[in-house]
Design a protein that fits this description.
This protein is α/β, with parallel strands linked by helices and 401 residues long. The chain is built from 16 helices and eleven strands. Helix 1 packs antiparallel against helix 9, helix 4 packs across helix 5 and helix 8 packs antiparallel against helix 12. It is globular, with a radius of gyration of 20 Å. It binds 2-acetamido-2-deoxy-beta-D-glucopyranose.
Length: 401
């Protein structure tokens, strides 16, 4: 069993070391051809192109477009675009971490979909800005609210402009927070054909991850920001060594993940080294603070700056809420959620469902934890085939319109 002290050490010290150490992990040192297409997707035998898009607040994001050579010219009609939106501390690689037979990104491409891979600001694949560098604290001045209203919106607009088609969306975890917040905005929802949400989250009040609750109770979010730390990065040289040494011999990494995400049914322990080559990606301290606010207050609202700054920022004392009732009833939703998911708790999922106008199609997987939804070795049969049937049925009904 992992000791809680060890876990606290990883989460408290890694960000600190990143700031203190001269030998920091830097994306600027990556050569430009070290991208998601060249590192993971093309080597697996799939066509992949890199696209750079600009958000309306100046961030440069990478989007990858993936297609399968296996289907060749057999298919006359191109299938619709699907945007894959990853979760917190992950990047677009999240959809390609297992074998082509097991990973959603490859599976959708093999079924003929036009697969687009989103990467939010601050991740290894999307770390550019028109005027700021990663070292500027302003570069990290955002939470999932900006990811939803700027990054996600910019991705959809770009795909819409290239394909002239409405887009299917798949989100996981924070990718579902972004999706649900964005769908409350009519100008974003209108670009979407249908959405599949894995581990859907809007409310976090009943989160039962002991590990996360401990950090919330320690007020780690306030501590980090008070210390002037803006980027949360577990990949500092020192942090990598620490995670490696914890995973190597003393305990298996599944235990560390379990204490954060809930027990994952179908984790492949032999692939941990490969996962760690890419995960975790950085995020911002402000984003962690926003998520912790949701846990403390039970709200699905914009970032809370405190009453004075809220007044200046929003013209009201409390941050405006994202009203799930504003998501159009006509937007088809499909959700898969797990009984062992310590982050997307059943009570909170029910709360989300109650506020929606529409009645999403639901898939409940009793033994699934939070990470299983993307890296379970059985996800294809357990989840993805059902999701693809949902997309197929929406595709049929929209072509009949
Ligand atoms: C688990 O990962 C190993 C190493 O990549 C791989 O050889 C094996 O096929 C994987 N097992 C399953 C069930 O996917």
């Amino acid at each position: 069993m992992i000791s809680e002290a060890m876990v606290a050490v990883i989460f408290i010290l890694c960000p600190l070391i990143y700031v203190c150490s001269a030998e920091t992990y830097s994306f600027d040192r990556l050569s430009p051809d070290q991208n998601l297409c060249s590192l993971i997707i093309r080597p697996a035998g799939y066509a992949c192109s890199e696209h750079t898009i600009l958000t309306d607040d100046g961030y440069l994001l990478a989007l990858q477009r993936v297609s399968s050579s296996k289907i060749g010219n057999l298919r006359q009609n191109p299938r619709p675009p699907v945007l894959l939106q990853h979760g917190l501390f992950m990047g677009g690689d999240a959809w390609f971490l297992n074998s082509p037979e097991e990973s959603l990104g490859f599976i959708l491409a093999d079924r003929g979909f036009d697969v687009w891979v989103g990467n939010v600001r601050g991740t290894r694949w999307s770390h550019g800005h028109v005027s700021l560098s990663l070292k500027d604290k302003d570069f990290w001045d955002w939470s999932w609210q900006e990811l939803a209203l700027h990054d996600f919106a910019a991705m959809l607009r770009y795909i819409k402009a290239v394909t002239s088609t409405k887009i299917f969306v798949v989100g996981h975890s924070q990718g579902t927070i972004m999706s649900l917040a964005a769908f409350t905005q009519p100008n974003i929802a209108e670009m979407v054909e249908a959405a599949a949400l894995l581990s859907p989250i809007s409310y976090l009040e009943h989160i039962n991850s002991k590990f996360v609750l401990r950090m919330v109770n320690m007020h780690l979010d306030q501590m980090i920001l008070a210390m002037g730390i803006h980027q949360v990065n577990f990949r500092s040289d020192w942090g990598v060594n620490l995670v490696d040494s914890i995973c190597d011999g003393h305990l298996d990494c599944n235990d560390l993940l379990t204490s954060i995400t809930g027990k994952n049914c179908c984790f492949n322990n032999s692939r941990v080294d490969f996962y760690l080559e890419y995960e975790p990606h950085p995020s911002s301290a402000k984003n962690i603070r926003h998520l912790f606010q949701m846990i403390r207050k039970g709200t699905f609202s914009k970032y809370d700056y405190g009453v004075v700054k809220n007044l200046m920022q929003y013209g009201q004392l409390k941050p405006p809420v994202f009203n799930l009732g504003n998501i159009p009833e006509s937007l088809p939703l499909w959700m898969a959620y797990g009984g062992d998911d310590a982050l997307a708790d059943l009570t909170d999922v029910k709360h989300t469902l109650k506020e929606l106008q529409s009645t999403p199609e639901l898939l409940y997987l009793e033994n699934y934890g939070h990470i299983d939804f993307i890296i379970s070795v059985h996800a294809k049969e357990d989840i993805y085939n059902h999701m693809i049937s949902f997309f197929n049925s929406r595709e049929k009904s929209s072509s009949l319109k």
